[in-house]
Write a structure and sequence with these properties.
Number of strands: 9
CATH architecture: 3-Layer(aba) Sandwich
Order of helices and strands: HHEEHEHEHEEHEEE
CATH topology: Rossmann fold
Number of helices: 6
CATH superfamily: Vaccinia Virus protein VP39
Radius of gyration: 19 Å
Shape: globular
Structural class: alpha/beta
Distance between the termini: 66 Å
Bound molecules: S-adenosyl-L-homocysteine
Length: 241
Amino acid sequence: MKNYFALGAFLYFCCTFPAQSEGYDVLRHKMVEEVLADIAAEVSYSESSALSPSVVAAMQKVERHLFVPASQTMRAYFNRPLPIGYGQTISQPLIVAMMTDLMQVKDSDKILEIGTGSGYQAAVLAEIVKSVYSIEIIHPLGKQAAERLKSLGYDNVEVRLGDGYYGWPEAAPFDAIIVTAAANHVPPPLLKQLKPGGRMLIPLGMHFMTQYLMLVEKKMDGSVTSRQILPVRFVPFTRKH
Ligand code: SAH
Protein backbone atom coordinates (compact mmCIF):
# COMPACT_ATOMS: atom_id res chain seq x y z
CA MET A 1 0.00 0.00 0.00
CA LYS A 2 2.80 2.35 1.06
CA ASN A 3 4.60 1.72 -2.22
CA TYR A 4 1.58 2.72 -4.21
CA PHE A 5 1.57 6.05 -2.41
CA ALA A 6 5.27 6.54 -3.09
CA LEU A 7 4.80 5.66 -6.74
CA GLY A 8 1.78 7.94 -6.93
CA ALA A 9 3.71 10.82 -5.40
CA PHE A 10 6.64 10.20 -7.77
CA LEU A 11 4.40 10.19 -10.82
CA TYR A 12 2.58 13.29 -9.56
CA PHE A 13 5.82 15.25 -9.24
CA CYS A 14 7.28 14.01 -12.53
CA CYS A 15 4.17 14.50 -14.54
CA THR A 16 2.48 17.57 -13.14
CA PHE A 17 5.42 19.98 -12.85
CA PRO A 18 6.75 19.79 -16.40
CA ALA A 19 3.20 19.48 -17.72
CA GLN A 20 2.19 22.61 -15.84
CA SER A 21 4.88 24.87 -17.25
CA GLU A 22 4.38 23.33 -20.68
CA GLY A 23 0.69 24.05 -20.18
CA TYR A 24 1.47 27.72 -19.59
CA ASP A 25 3.59 27.82 -22.76
CA VAL A 26 0.69 26.42 -24.78
CA LEU A 27 -1.76 28.86 -23.19
CA ARG A 28 0.59 31.81 -23.81
CA HIS A 29 0.99 30.74 -27.43
CA LYS A 30 -2.79 30.67 -27.82
CA MET A 31 -3.09 34.08 -26.17
CA VAL A 32 -0.63 35.59 -28.66
CA GLU A 33 -2.53 33.97 -31.55
CA GLU A 34 -5.71 35.59 -30.26
CA VAL A 35 -4.01 38.98 -29.95
CA LEU A 36 -2.70 38.69 -33.53
CA ALA A 37 -6.15 37.78 -34.83
CA ASP A 38 -7.73 40.74 -32.98
CA ILE A 39 -5.13 43.09 -34.40
CA ALA A 40 -5.62 41.78 -37.93
CA ALA A 41 -9.34 42.49 -37.49
CA GLU A 42 -8.62 46.03 -36.22
CA VAL A 43 -6.61 47.14 -39.25
CA SER A 44 -7.72 50.70 -38.67
CA TYR A 45 -5.90 51.15 -35.35
CA SER A 46 -2.67 51.97 -37.10
CA GLU A 47 -1.05 51.88 -40.49
CA SER A 48 -0.27 48.18 -40.19
CA SER A 49 -2.42 45.16 -39.48
CA ALA A 50 0.35 43.10 -37.89
CA LEU A 51 2.60 43.40 -34.87
CA SER A 52 6.32 43.80 -35.40
CA PRO A 53 8.24 40.53 -34.84
CA SER A 54 10.04 41.90 -31.77
CA VAL A 55 6.70 42.62 -30.07
CA VAL A 56 5.37 39.14 -30.92
CA ALA A 57 8.55 37.56 -29.53
CA ALA A 58 8.31 39.58 -26.30
CA MET A 59 4.63 38.65 -25.83
CA GLN A 60 5.56 34.99 -26.39
CA LYS A 61 8.36 35.17 -23.86
CA VAL A 62 7.02 37.08 -20.85
CA GLU A 63 5.26 34.71 -18.46
CA ARG A 64 2.12 36.66 -17.59
CA HIS A 65 1.14 34.06 -14.98
CA LEU A 66 4.07 35.27 -12.86
CA PHE A 67 2.69 38.85 -12.85
CA VAL A 68 -0.78 38.17 -11.45
CA PRO A 69 -1.90 37.26 -7.92
CA ALA A 70 -2.18 33.51 -7.20
CA SER A 71 -5.99 33.81 -7.29
CA GLN A 72 -5.76 34.88 -10.96
CA THR A 73 -3.15 32.40 -12.23
CA MET A 74 -5.76 30.29 -13.98
CA ARG A 75 -6.91 33.33 -15.96
CA ALA A 76 -3.42 34.70 -16.69
CA TYR A 77 -3.57 33.82 -20.38
CA PHE A 78 -7.08 35.09 -21.05
CA ASN A 79 -6.94 38.12 -23.31
CA ARG A 80 -8.37 40.27 -20.52
CA PRO A 81 -7.33 42.76 -17.87
CA LEU A 82 -7.15 41.17 -14.40
CA PRO A 83 -7.20 42.56 -10.85
CA ILE A 84 -3.79 42.91 -9.19
CA GLY A 85 -4.95 44.36 -5.84
CA TYR A 86 -5.30 47.94 -4.55
CA GLY A 87 -8.11 48.47 -7.07
CA GLN A 88 -5.65 48.27 -9.99
CA THR A 89 -5.42 45.97 -13.00
CA ILE A 90 -2.84 44.36 -15.25
CA SER A 91 -3.72 45.57 -18.77
CA GLN A 92 -5.30 43.35 -21.41
CA PRO A 93 -2.61 41.57 -23.50
CA LEU A 94 -4.09 43.06 -26.70
CA ILE A 95 -3.62 46.58 -25.33
CA VAL A 96 -0.08 45.83 -24.08
CA ALA A 97 0.85 44.48 -27.53
CA MET A 98 -0.75 47.41 -29.39
CA MET A 99 0.79 50.09 -27.21
CA THR A 100 4.23 48.47 -27.39
CA ASP A 101 3.93 48.22 -31.17
CA LEU A 102 2.74 51.82 -31.58
CA MET A 103 5.75 53.08 -29.62
CA GLN A 104 7.96 51.76 -32.47
CA VAL A 105 10.75 50.98 -30.03
CA LYS A 106 14.27 49.86 -30.97
CA ASP A 107 16.83 47.87 -29.02
CA SER A 108 18.88 50.99 -28.21
CA ASP A 109 15.91 52.86 -26.68
CA LYS A 110 15.37 54.27 -23.21
CA ILE A 111 11.69 54.20 -22.23
CA LEU A 112 9.65 55.80 -19.47
CA GLU A 113 6.53 54.07 -18.18
CA ILE A 114 4.02 55.70 -15.82
CA GLY A 115 2.03 53.09 -13.88
CA THR A 116 4.23 50.06 -13.15
CA GLY A 117 1.31 48.07 -11.70
CA SER A 118 2.31 44.40 -11.92
CA GLY A 119 5.45 45.14 -13.95
CA TYR A 120 4.15 43.13 -16.94
CA GLN A 121 4.21 45.96 -19.51
CA ALA A 122 7.68 46.94 -18.25
CA ALA A 123 8.88 43.34 -18.76
CA VAL A 124 7.49 43.22 -22.31
CA LEU A 125 9.31 46.46 -23.11
CA ALA A 126 12.48 45.29 -21.37
CA GLU A 127 12.62 42.29 -23.73
CA ILE A 128 13.00 44.72 -26.64
CA VAL A 129 14.73 47.90 -25.47
CA LYS A 130 17.93 48.85 -23.65
CA SER A 131 16.36 50.35 -20.53
CA VAL A 132 12.98 50.97 -18.94
CA TYR A 133 12.27 53.50 -16.18
CA SER A 134 8.92 52.88 -14.54
CA ILE A 135 7.07 54.89 -11.86
CA GLU A 136 4.28 53.59 -9.60
CA ILE A 137 2.29 55.74 -7.17
CA ILE A 138 1.00 52.88 -4.96
CA HIS A 139 4.07 51.95 -2.95
CA PRO A 140 3.31 48.28 -2.10
CA LEU A 141 2.47 47.57 -5.76
CA GLY A 142 5.62 49.27 -7.01
CA LYS A 143 7.77 47.50 -4.43
CA GLN A 144 6.29 44.11 -5.34
CA ALA A 145 6.75 44.74 -9.07
CA ALA A 146 10.36 45.86 -8.56
CA GLU A 147 11.14 42.67 -6.61
CA ARG A 148 9.36 40.52 -9.19
CA LEU A 149 11.25 42.10 -12.10
CA LYS A 150 14.54 41.72 -10.26
CA SER A 151 13.90 38.06 -9.46
CA LEU A 152 13.07 37.40 -13.12
CA GLY A 153 16.40 38.93 -14.15
CA TYR A 154 15.16 42.20 -15.68
CA ASP A 155 18.23 44.22 -14.74
CA ASN A 156 17.37 46.84 -17.36
CA VAL A 157 14.21 47.99 -15.52
CA GLU A 158 14.32 50.59 -12.76
CA VAL A 159 11.22 51.19 -10.66
CA ARG A 160 10.59 54.38 -8.70
CA LEU A 161 7.80 54.94 -6.17
CA GLY A 162 6.02 58.26 -6.58
CA ASP A 163 3.80 60.45 -8.73
CA GLY A 164 4.64 59.88 -12.37
CA TYR A 165 3.14 63.25 -13.38
CA TYR A 166 6.60 64.79 -13.05
CA GLY A 167 8.37 62.04 -14.98
CA TRP A 168 11.97 61.10 -14.24
CA PRO A 169 13.99 64.24 -15.09
CA GLU A 170 17.40 62.76 -14.14
CA ALA A 171 17.01 59.97 -16.69
CA ALA A 172 15.41 62.13 -19.44
CA PRO A 173 15.15 62.51 -22.39
CA PHE A 174 13.28 59.32 -23.36
CA ASP A 175 12.87 57.78 -26.81
CA ALA A 176 9.27 56.90 -25.95
CA ILE A 177 6.87 57.29 -23.02
CA ILE A 178 3.95 55.04 -22.12
CA VAL A 179 1.28 56.02 -19.61
CA THR A 180 -0.87 53.09 -18.43
CA ALA A 181 -3.48 55.03 -16.42
CA ALA A 182 -6.11 57.39 -17.85
CA ALA A 183 -5.30 61.09 -17.40
CA ASN A 184 -7.39 64.14 -18.28
CA HIS A 185 -4.50 65.90 -20.00
CA VAL A 186 -0.97 65.17 -21.18
CA PRO A 187 1.32 66.07 -18.26
CA PRO A 188 3.62 68.86 -19.56
CA PRO A 189 6.69 67.47 -17.71
CA LEU A 190 6.31 64.20 -19.66
CA LEU A 191 6.11 66.01 -22.99
CA LYS A 192 9.24 67.94 -22.03
CA GLN A 193 11.08 64.68 -21.26
CA LEU A 194 10.21 63.13 -24.65
CA LYS A 195 13.00 63.26 -27.26
CA PRO A 196 12.32 65.08 -30.54
CA GLY A 197 11.19 62.32 -32.90
CA GLY A 198 9.76 60.40 -29.93
CA ARG A 199 6.30 58.96 -29.32
CA MET A 200 4.06 58.94 -26.26
CA LEU A 201 1.07 56.63 -25.76
CA ILE A 202 -1.43 57.89 -23.21
CA PRO A 203 -5.09 57.11 -22.49
CA LEU A 204 -7.03 60.36 -22.11
CA GLY A 205 -10.51 60.73 -20.62
CA MET A 206 -12.46 60.61 -17.41
CA HIS A 207 -13.02 57.55 -15.26
CA PHE A 208 -16.23 55.67 -16.19
CA MET A 209 -16.47 57.70 -19.40
CA THR A 210 -15.07 57.04 -22.83
CA GLN A 211 -11.33 57.26 -22.87
CA TYR A 212 -9.18 57.29 -25.98
CA LEU A 213 -5.73 55.92 -26.40
CA MET A 214 -3.79 58.87 -27.85
CA LEU A 215 -0.59 58.76 -29.85
CA VAL A 216 1.38 61.95 -29.19
CA GLU A 217 4.35 62.61 -31.44
CA LYS A 218 7.08 65.17 -30.89
CA LYS A 219 8.51 66.11 -34.27
CA MET A 220 12.19 66.84 -34.83
CA ASP A 221 11.42 70.60 -34.79
CA GLY A 222 9.77 70.23 -31.37
CA SER A 223 6.19 70.62 -32.62
CA VAL A 224 3.64 68.18 -31.20
CA THR A 225 0.81 66.33 -32.93
CA SER A 226 -1.65 63.88 -31.47
CA ARG A 227 -4.28 61.50 -32.74
CA GLN A 228 -6.86 59.15 -31.31
CA ILE A 229 -6.11 55.48 -31.80
CA LEU A 230 -9.05 53.66 -30.21
CA PRO A 231 -11.47 53.77 -27.27
CA VAL A 232 -10.03 52.11 -24.16
CA ARG A 233 -10.74 51.64 -20.47
CA PHE A 234 -7.91 52.25 -18.02
CA VAL A 235 -7.79 52.82 -14.27
CA PRO A 236 -7.45 56.52 -13.38
CA PHE A 237 -4.21 58.46 -13.28
CA THR A 238 -4.12 59.60 -9.65
CA ARG A 239 -2.24 62.43 -7.98
CA LYS A 240 -0.66 62.78 -4.55
CA HIS A 241 -2.28 65.60 -2.62
N1 SAH B 1 1.38 48.77 -16.68
C1 SAH B 1 0.68 48.03 -15.66
C2 SAH B 1 -0.78 48.39 -15.63
C3 SAH B 1 -1.04 49.05 -14.36
S1 SAH B 1 -2.60 49.81 -14.10
C4 SAH B 1 0.88 46.52 -15.81
O1 SAH B 1 1.47 46.09 -16.81
O2 SAH B 1 0.49 45.78 -14.92
C5 SAH B 1 -2.09 51.48 -13.88
C6 SAH B 1 -1.16 51.76 -12.75
O3 SAH B 1 -0.91 53.17 -12.76
C7 SAH B 1 -1.73 51.45 -11.36
O4 SAH B 1 -0.88 50.58 -10.69
C8 SAH B 1 -1.79 52.83 -10.68
O5 SAH B 1 -1.52 52.79 -9.30
C9 SAH B 1 -0.71 53.59 -11.44
N2 SAH B 1 -0.81 55.06 -11.38
C10 SAH B 1 -1.93 55.83 -11.40
N3 SAH B 1 -1.61 57.13 -11.32
C11 SAH B 1 -0.25 57.19 -11.26
C12 SAH B 1 0.70 58.27 -11.13
N4 SAH B 1 0.32 59.55 -11.05
N5 SAH B 1 2.02 57.96 -11.10
C13 SAH B 1 2.44 56.67 -11.15
N6 SAH B 1 1.59 55.61 -11.25
C14 SAH B 1 0.27 55.87 -11.29
